[in-house]
Amino acid sequence: MVHYLVKIIFLVFIIMPKNIHSCSILGFDREVHILNNLPPNSPQLEFHCASGDDDLGYHYPAIGTDFNWKFCAFINTLFFCHFWWGDKDLPYDVFNSVDSCVWDGEDFVPPDTVKCLWKVQDDGFYLGFFDENVNENIYKKYRDW
User: Fold this and answer.
1) How many domains does the chain have?
2) What does UniProt give as the signal peptide span (predicted)?
3) Domain encompassing residue 72
């Protein structure tokens, strides 16, 4: 019986249209957004993000712009970023929990959050999420620079 079930599951994934992302069907798709919300005329924000499998490279977003990526998240998925702003630099995990973006993010985002939002500001790092109306819900997460 188990062998028969495995064959059916395998066939479903083989014949599934290529434009349907299997990760979203299974509910494991996630997004991370990093918004440069630093003051005008401040030093350039730079960050480098990566996981064990993906190096997303170095980024230099203009003020008010959003760098984001989508991925298939599982229990052990981890994305970290190293941020530089002028003479300041800080590394942070930006995703390590399929439920709340980061393990200690339960106070900031509801369970099963799909779109994690980070705002980088001059007074610290803010974590939030987009609700079903695409409203931002944001809370200060990490200390000042």
Assistant:
1) 1
2) 1-22
3) 21-144
